[in-house]
Amino acid sequence: MKNKFLIAVFILTLAVCARLSVAFADSQVLSYTGSQQTWDVPAGVTSITVDAYGAKGATATTGSYGVGGEGGRTQATLTVTPGDTLYIYVGGKGTSLTGGGWNGGGYGYSGFSHQPGRGGGASDIRSGGTALANRILVAGGGGGGGVQAGTRPDGGAGGTTTGADGGDANTAGCGGDGGTGSAGGTGGTFSGYGTAQPGSLGLGGGDGTTSYPTYNNLGGGGGGGYYGGGCGDWGAGGGGSSWVTATGSSSITYTRGGRADNGQITITWAAPAISLKFEGIKMEGIKIPSS
Fold first, then answer.
1. Could you tell me which of 179, 168, 244, 245 has the C-alpha nearest to residue 207?
2. What is the per-residue DSSP string for 39-53?
3. Rg, C-alpha atoms of the chain
4. In angstroms, what CA-CA distances link 166 with 70, 114, 245, 260?
5. Tens of pLDDT, residues 237-270
6. Measuring CA to CA, how many Å separate 191 from each of 38, 74, 186?
7. Using an 8 Å Cβ cutoff, are 73 and 139 in contact?
């Protein structure tokens, strides 16, 4: 009697199902151009990380050659809306022979062939418009160096919520004060030369738009900022303050100084995750009867 049985020649069942989510990060560096720039929020992006530097103030070319203050640094995560346009202002460093640094650097005073340093401009981001009231993040610029002989009057560094005061040199109070979160820095005072111009919202003192006292106030310009630093009176200019909106912001870090050039803003964002699904292959066994 023959035994009948089934020989399983091949039996294989393979079933694979996997899902992989991949998110891609991207960034863009915006450098100084001397004019407004724009950045459009990509589709699906609701948060960006910003690393911004204000610009350095200029070093004086005469007197005791007071060195310009460095621009400050502001880092923060900001809530944004996909499709919105952000307006980018990257500050320009101050110079010793022409105007203050672009975006709020103070011009300062010059005369008697003396050339103090001009203030560095702030770097900022604006949303919903281009007015100063539309700023959502600011990195303060450094103040310009002063020209008074003696102890070198260096410009105040920009950054933190209060910029550094400009150097006083030989006379207490002749350097401009740093800008704060609520007011511009006070202008320096030198006996017989009056008081230099204070900083204001977005502008370093000595911005070239105001009539100055009938004295030659040879001081460094204030740095631009949320509020600008005060202009020096023979002394150096104060640094501008930094600031971040309280609405939708987090992970805020302020650093005073750190930038010895034009400003810079780096924006980093993560694109929405892409889901990839992989399906497996299922193979059935083949059964062959035996005689």
1. 179
2. EEPPTT--EEEEEEE
3. 30
4. 11, 18, 26, 16
5. 999 999 999 999 999 999 999 999 999 999 999 9
6. 46, 37, 16
7. yes
Residues 156-166: tens digit of each pLDDT: 999 999 999 99
The amino acid sitting at 22 is: V
219 belongs to a structural domain: yes
Phi and psi for 19 in degrees, rounded to 5?
-125, 130
Where do the H-state alpha helices sit in the chain? none
| Phi, psi for 6 (deg, rounded to 5) | -100, 135
* Residue with the two structure tokens 């550094």: 164
Torsion of CA 138, 89, 207, 75, to 10 degrees: 20
Side-chain-side CA neighbours of 100 within 13 Å: the count stands at 39
| Residues whose CB is less than 8 angstroms from the CB of residue 187 and which lie 6 or more positions away in sequence, other chains included | 176, 195, 196, 197, 198, 205, 206, 219, 222, 230, 231, 232, 233
Tokens standing for residue 96: 């010793």
Cα separation, 165 vs 275, whole angstroms: 53
- Count of structural domains within the chain: 1
Residue 8 structure tokens: 């399983």
Is position 191 within any domain? yes
CA dist., res. 194 & res. 174, Å (int): 10
Question: Which residue carries 């952000």 as its tokens?
Answer: 86
Q: Is 255 helix (H, G, I), strand (E, B) or coil?
A: strand
